[in-house]
Design goal:
- The complex is a heterodimer of chains A (414) and B (134).
- Chain A is an alpha/beta fold and 414 residues long.
- Helix content of chain A is 44%, strand content 13%.
- Chain A has a seven-stranded mixed beta sheet with strand order 2-8-7-6-5-3-4, with helices on both faces. Chain A has a four-stranded antiparallel beta sheet with strand order 9-10-13-12. In chain A, strands 1-11 form a two-stranded parallel ribbon.
- In chain A, helix 7 links the parallel strand 5 and strand 6.
- By secondary structure, chain B is an alpha+beta fold.
- Chain B contains five helices and three strands, in the order αβββαααα.
- Chain B has a three-stranded antiparallel beta sheet.
- In chain B, a hairpin with a 2-residue loop joins strand 2 and strand 3.
- The chains are: A alpha/beta (414), B alpha+beta (134).
- At the A-B interface, helix 11, helix 13, helix 14 and helix 15 of A face strand 2, strand 3 and helix 2 of B.
Chain lengths: 414, 134
């Protein structure tokens, strides 16, 4: 097996942004490397070189199916989590449009704090005539189940079929874990299939699709120490969707294009390691998370812990800091080598702060002042202590020069 | 543990003004020494600036500021504060957002609205001074 030098997490950076992406695990890279230079075959070729690739693909598919507890034919390998989501949503939509001579007839239901991959895809599908409903979340980010049930019922009573419900497994910004089982029971009561974006949950949460009750599940490689540019869609055989990419019978006619063997092998390996370490790593990170939350609350005045205290990914910490703006905090931490992300509009291409933080009821100012820390395999207590020290001094300084902070101080004096 | 930083999204000039801003208001009690005050921006778009000027004989003798906002907002206020010190009111009123941008050697397009606030706040403060002294 080819050996490569381990270049992960050099001393120059302290990475606290594992929900953005993860480094590739050494063991994952090692297993995938031979499929670039040595075993480069095309699975569709009718010769020995192709056969090696075909068997590798088959093997990877079986390994993934075992973890998801599904049939191997129910796995579609794609090029990203975003692509899997597009395939699930548009796949259902196109099926419906073919039936209705090009027009979209029916409703898609999703949540207010979904990833843009879901929200923007559905927004686009609206143009074809589909009806889109976004369900509210409570202050913890949990979907309103009653509203979900009522909306399904109401649409069906009005003769509008609900084509799909898409609710994420765990939220990328605040780490809130949705009660997928309860959601699926509501959906199935009315015969509606459920898709879930599981990208953020894959490293830490159970992935048995039968127990979760999902009919489609999106996963990707770049959040689980696999490769960027890899993803998969689990699709129950009873759910019928159209392909988005044509030109060959690859992936059970659902995704044409020569298969990314190295990436698929990496995905299988990454999922296997995640599965093996899930339990232990969840306990370790939960401890670190609770430690950090407690310490920030104790040592920094006027902070808001965003999201749920308990129904939360073990690696997610999200705080808003009153009176200051997130991009400034992020860049000052960056100067100290610490990599985090923010819900502030200033660090994005839009003028509005995070739709997730607004949906859980944060006012604009506090949404602009949010920082997300996400942990991973190399996060330690020592790194968290260093982060908190730097965070404290950044916040103190930015509050000194903030009109908002000083205004709040004088309010309090009165 | 020692961790070093590297790489940056803005120019060197923005970084210097953001990491080591000049002329910001350190303490509330400094305010009484100033005779012109301006505030612009709002929390919804995420940028708020406050500026205090000390104007004598139509010249800006001193300036203090506070800014809520991203790095480019903080840097552009700091840069502007250095530019207007010693400037006549007449010239200060002519200061534009692009003058501040030039001083910072440029800002990403999406960030330009931040530096626009700097010159607006300045005009507000001069207006405030003039209405108090006419």
């Amino acid at each position: 097996m080819t050996k490569t030098k381990n270049i992960q997490n050099t001393a120059k950076e302290l990475y606290m942004d594992y929900s953005a992406t993860t480094p590739t695990r050494q063991a994952v890279l090692d297993e995938a490397l031979p499929f670039f230079v040595e075993k480069y075959g095309n699975p569709s070729s009718f010769h020995s070189t192709g056969l090696v690739a075909k068997r590798t693909l088959q093997d990877a598919r079986e390994r993934v199916a075992k973890i998801l507890n599904c049939d191997e034919k129910e796995i579609v390998f794609t090029g990203s989590g975003t692509e899997s989501i597009n395939l699930a949503l548009k796949g259902i939509a196109f099926k419906n449009m073919i039936k209705n001579k090009g027009l979209g007839k029916g409703t898609f239901i999703t949540g207010k704090i979904e990833h843009p991959a879901v929200l923007e895809t559905l927004e686009w599908l609206e143009k074809f005539g589909f009806n889109i409903i976004e369900i509210d979340v409570d202050m913890n980010g949990i979907i309103n189940l009653k509203q979900l049930q009522n909306d399904i019922k109401k649409n069906q009573e009005e003769g509008l079929p609900v084509l799909l419900v898409s609710i994420m497994y765990a939220n990328n910004e605040i780490g809130t874990i949705q009660p997928l089982k309860e959601i699926s029971e509501i959906c199935h009561k009315y015969g509606v299939p459920l898709h879930s974006d599981g990208c953020q949950g894959a490293e830490y949460l159970p992935l048995d699709v039968t127990k979760l009750g999902v009919d489609m599940l999106t996963l990707n490689g770049s959040k689980i120490y696999g490769f960027k540019g890899t993803g998969l869609l689990y699709k129950n055989k009873n759910v019928i969707i159209e392909s988005l990419i044509h030109g060959g019978g690859h992936e059970n006619n659902l995704r044409a294009g020569t298969e990314n063997i190295a990436g698929i092998v990496a995905m299988a390996k990454a999922l296997e390691i995640a599965e093996k370490e899930k339990k232990k790593e969840t306990i370790r990170l939960k401890k670190l998370r609770n430690y950090m939350v407690k310490k920030i609350k104790k040592e920094i005045p006027k902070v808001i812990y965003n999201g749920s205290a308990t129904k939360r990914l073990p690696n997610n910490v999200n705080f808003s800091f009153e009176g200051i703006e997130g991009e400034s905090i992020l860049l000052r931490l960056n100067e100290a080598g610490i990599r985090v992300s923010t819900g502030s509009a200033c660090a994005s291409q839009s003028l509005d702060p995070s739709h997730v933080l607004l949906a859980i009821g944060l006012p604009h100012g506090l949404a602009h002042g949010s920082i997300r820390f996400t942990f991973g395999k190399d996060t330690t207590k020592q790194k968290i202590d260093y982060t908190i020290r730097e965070l404290k001094s950044s916040i103190k300084f930015l509050r000194t020069i903030s009109p908002e902070w000083n205004k709040q101080k004088s309010w309090r004096k009165r | 543990m020692k961790v070093e930083g590297n790489d940056w999204f803005y120019t060197k000039e923005v970084k210097e003004h953001f990491m080591n801003p000049k002329n910001f208001l350190k303490e509330e009690k400094e305010i009484k020494e100033f005779n012109g005050y301006g505030k612009v921006g709002n929390m919804k778009c995420g940028d708020v600036m406050e500026i205090w000027l000390l104007i004598e004989k139509n010249k800006i003798k001193d300036v203090r500021w506070r800014t809520f906002g991203c790095a480019s907002a903080i840097a552009s206020t700091s840069a502007m504060s250095e530019m207007v010190k010693g400037m006549s009111i007449h010239n200060a009123l002519k200061l534009t957002a692009s003058d501040i941008m030039d001083k910072l050697k440029g800002l990403p397009a999406i960030k330009v609205h931040c530096s626009v606030l700097g010159d607006e706040a300045l005009r507000e403060a001069i207006k405030d001074y003039e209405s108090n002294n006419n």
